[in-house]
Write a sequence for this structure.
């Protein structure tokens, strides 16, 4: 039986190199009620829970963090040094909904909220659409050098969702079907423009026994 062979001189030097990317979702905001696009600082409980996870991640890696205060605090609590603040990993721009609660938006602009959650290209708030967020995150993933090796990044929930959609080449409306709990990890491996999603341990599950609590601060989704 004949097997296909590959000419590395044609495919390029990085064609057979694998990037191993772990996205860590920052803890949810401490503020209640949760408001769109507010960069609230982490409370002491969230910081304590994050510090408990410091040994759960690879140590030899290129480190990134989204430019929010929350993501920076998470990276620091994990003990990361020499972290690159990456603007491409910023949270979705919520436009004139920023600072407002979901209930308030639903009461004042129910039609706009419905369109936003159904049409990935819609941006009734005047900010960034889900499609624009997806393209931004996909572009960052595609720009990672093939010899990057192990890469870790603290990101917002929306960015982690977009990365999963890109890895699976899933339809954009599936963005809303991806649940990324606070302090969970998304593990991706990429080579030659193709990404795979690897199911791994939810980091927050390691908190049991450390803080007497089973979930990260803030509970579930905050977008």
């Amino acid at each position: 039986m004949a097997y296909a062979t590959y000419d590395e001189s044609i495919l390029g030097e990085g064609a057979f190199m694998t990037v191993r990317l772990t996205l860590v979702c920052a803890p949810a905001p401490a503020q209640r009620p949760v408001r769109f696009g507010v960069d609230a600082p982490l409370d002491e409980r969230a910081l304590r829970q994050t510090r408990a996870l410091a040994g759960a991640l690879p140590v030899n890696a290129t480190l990134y963090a989204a430019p929010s205060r929350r993501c920076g605090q998470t990276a620091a609590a994990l003990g990361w040094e020499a972290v690159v603040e990456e603007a491409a990993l910023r949270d979705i721009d919520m436009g004139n909904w920023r600072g407002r609660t979901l209930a308030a938006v639903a009461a004042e602009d129910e039609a706009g909220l419905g369109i936003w959650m159904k049409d990935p290209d819609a941006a009734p708030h005047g900010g960034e659409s889900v499609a624009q967020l997806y393209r931004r995150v996909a572009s960052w993933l595609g720009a990672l050098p093939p010899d990057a090796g192990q890469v870790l990044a603290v990101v917002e929930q929306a960015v982690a969702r977009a990365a999963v959609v890109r890895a699976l080449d899933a339809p954009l409306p599936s963005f809303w079907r991806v649940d990324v709990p606070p302090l969970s990890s998304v593990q991706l491996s990429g080579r030659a423009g193709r990404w795979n999603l690897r199911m791994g341990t939810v980091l927050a599950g390691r908190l049991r026994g450390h803080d007497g609590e089973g979930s990260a601060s803030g509970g579930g989704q905050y977008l």
